[in-house]
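# step 3/5: fold
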Amino acid sequence: MYRPARWKPTMMWGLLLVGWLGLLFLFSSQTYEQQSIQPFLRSHFTYNQLVRWLPDLTITYLHSSVNSHDRPYSFIEFLFRKGAHLFVYATFAALMFMFLRALTRGRWFLSIILTLMVAIAVPAMDEWNQLSSDERTGNATDVVLDFVGGCAGLLICLCILGLVKLWRSRSRNRSQYRL
């Protein structure tokens, strides 16, 4: 039976991880204006449309508040940015875990611990990198948000792997009973 080389999955996950990290630090180095989605929102939606669609909510984050009816464009951008933090770091942690899992040949516990350590270190470096970007500020609250995203990504990855393992074991059991 043909078995692919063991280094191929490690290389594949490693390349995906390095590419994702590159995108992460590219976005982190951009100015606020370069990342702003408000020009897009303003060109596609009127103020009144957004006020009509959005519930009247106020979110306080750090020392400022944004209300969905007073500043709908800022409100949507705020939600988009924080959602992006969660998504980016969830994906990062999943890729990191898969890379470490392939590198450590299935030592799940070690891979989980290392992923969690890196999932707090990389966001901290990301926020530190933002301190050197124009009109950006690094902040510890975002590190916590990023870590929560990383934990969610790791948990989703573990659930998917568990379901795949369950499906494979059931498939094997069914094929044994057919013989």
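# step 4/5: annotate
The mean pLDDT is 88.
# step 5/5: archive (pending)
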